[in-house]
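Hi support team,

I submitted a single chain yesterday and got back a structure, but I'm not sure I'm reading the token output correctly. Could someone confirm the output below corresponds to the sequence I sent? I've pasted both exactly as they appear in my results page.

Thanks,
R.
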Amino acid sequence: GASFSSEVMAQVAAQLATSAYSRDLETEADREGVAMLNRPGIGGNGLIKFFELVQKMEGKGFSVPKYLSSHPMTGSRIAAIGKLSKPASAPTLSETEWRTVRNICD
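Hi R., thanks for writing in. Yes, this is the structure output for that exact sequence:
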């Protein structure tokens, strides 16, 4: 009845409000992450590549409409990170160090 509809509408409104809040937090996290990468001269190119992979995977499956998503749209994240990111000034890890890290993660 009417109370069920009211409950559903209240839940939908709460979800929409929470999603927008979560998107704002994710956007702030992206900004802070890029700032942390920029400080030692790493730059955000690796983060951009990561989100490009995510975007490619999204193209193969279901995509959530922006107003229901708890995260900013991937393309928007890539663009924002690109604007904030500084070019890398030096490699962060040597090839040997990178292989060691990859072996730990595999």
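A quick pointer for reading it: The chain has a mean pLDDT of 82. Let us know if anything else looks off.

Best,
Support desk
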